[in-house]
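User: Second chain of the day. Same drill as before.
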Amino acid sequence: MERERIGFIGLGIMGSRMAANLAAADYELTVWNRTAAKAEAFAAEHGARAAATPAELAAASDVVIKIVVNGEQVEQLLVGEDGVIAGAREGMLCIDMSTISPATARSLGERLGQHGIAFIDAPVTGSSPGAEAGTLTIMAGGSKADVERAAPIFEVLGAKTVHCGALGQGQTIKLITNAIAASNAAVLAQALILARGAGVDLGALSEVIDGGAADSRIAQLKLQPMIERRYDTLFRLDHMIKDVDLALDLAAEEAVPFDYAAQTRELMAEASAEGFGEVDFAALYEALQARADAAQ
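Assistant: Same format as last time:
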């Protein structure tokens, strides 16, 4: 079976690493990025082709993958002026790996379907280390046939793909899990501040957490940066605020309280207001530290 040609839109922290893995797997790759120079540099480094517009990218592709910041960007790139839909042929598969609202995913799927274009929502978790290593977890929503068509691509990008159900269900699960991750980070930060205040050996604390009942993927990724108060960006704090906002919108639609997520959102907003919005969301530690300092 002939390999499908891939168009990849969005070469940020996650997308650049994911696209590089596809290039390394010898897929014929066309890329587009809002900053054209970034796309051109990527293409030169990885043997890909840079397109001038999403429409031009679509015309050269059988499958188009996007990973950008929000639903507004996804919509503009797909159905806006010079968007994917303008260059797509019937039978194309679009895979959106951004994190957007489930309702937006369903709406876009319906609009693309009217033009014979298949659509999957397939957000990911694993942050930039998982994107670079090709070990992401992919949460796919869409028809079984479309998810099976995407499987060879997902095998390059991730270690696990979960077919979450109908279109939009990948996004629903992603929003819930990101709210869990953010809330987990907030508890971890508050515990660390308590440990510092109590004179705890932080190395000993780290050893006990590692592999114990309090361990988690968040602890593995965020405890040391919080200890060092150095927040190299794996997942931007402002992007996590956006995702938690979407999770809270979903909770409101379902009339389900999500108090811990709401409290964590307040902490992240405080940290963002202090200038930490573009660094890793582990920087929510700074908001809790400021509250602790103010209480003394």
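The chain has two domains: 6-165, 172-295.

User: Great, on to the next one.
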